Amino acid sequence: MARKARRGKRGGWLRQGILVLLLAGGLAAGWLWWEGRQWRPSEASYADQGAYLTDAAGEVNFTTLRAIGAAFVYLRGSIGGNDKDQAFARNFEAARAAGIPTGVVHVFDPCVPADVQSANFVVMVPRDAQLLPAAIALDKLADDCSTRVSEAAVESELITLINQVEIHTGSPVLLKPSKAFERRYPVAAGFERNLWLEQDWLEPDYAGRPWLMWTANDGLKTEASDQPLAWVVVRP
How many other C-beta atoms can be found within 10 angstroms of the C-beta atom of residue 194? Predict the structure, then answer.
């Protein structure tokens, strides 16, 4: 009986130890999550910092955004051939009224011809030399297209889109490939354009060559909005 009692006590201590470890792990994970929401690179290392805004950021106070260190903003504008960011017009007007240098991002759709996509961009984005260079976000793969689109066709349509956007804006575009897109269609090696890469907290290296811009925190919580926003820095 005494032996069973001792085993029972050891089992109880073991369970308590496991519970303590689980609690500590949960607290650590929660602390890391909270710190991650607040984190952005130091201004000593990256003097030029700004934000990338989509309608997911909700109502943004651009005066506050500028006050907390956003020296520029990029706004998601046209999406594929027909869609647009629902907050673009509001954000575009507000950003320029606040005096923040502004650029526009087009979201590339490999299933849609480049001519249709560039028309969508041109309708939404004015020809204005004061705008920052346009960016093309490369996230969607051709896997879900209704008809098969080869890698060569994706590259061809992207070349056409780049040329048409650059004719409209008068300056070279930035290419903003996700890690998955770059793995499938290595645009960094095939296109001599500045890169805008993304990876939370750690500098990205998936393009195989230096980037110009980096989305360092895709879910930064700030006083400028009640929803998280993407925080972007420029290579020194």
Answer: 17
| Contact yes or no for 213/235 (Cβ under 8 A) | yes
Q: What share of the chain is helix, strand, coil (3-state, %, to 5)?
A: 40, 20, 35
Which run of H or of E encompasses 14? helix 2-38
Written out in words, the top-level CATH class of the domain with range 45-234 is: alpha beta
Low-confidence stretches of the chain (pLDDT < 70) are: 1-36
Q: Which residues contact 210 (CB under 8 A, 6 or more apart)?
A: 195, 235
CA distance 85 to 76: 6
Six token digits for residue 201: 């907290």
Helices (H) and strands (E) in the chain, counts: 7, 9
Model pLDDT, residue 8: 59
**CA–centroid distance for 208 within its chain:** 19
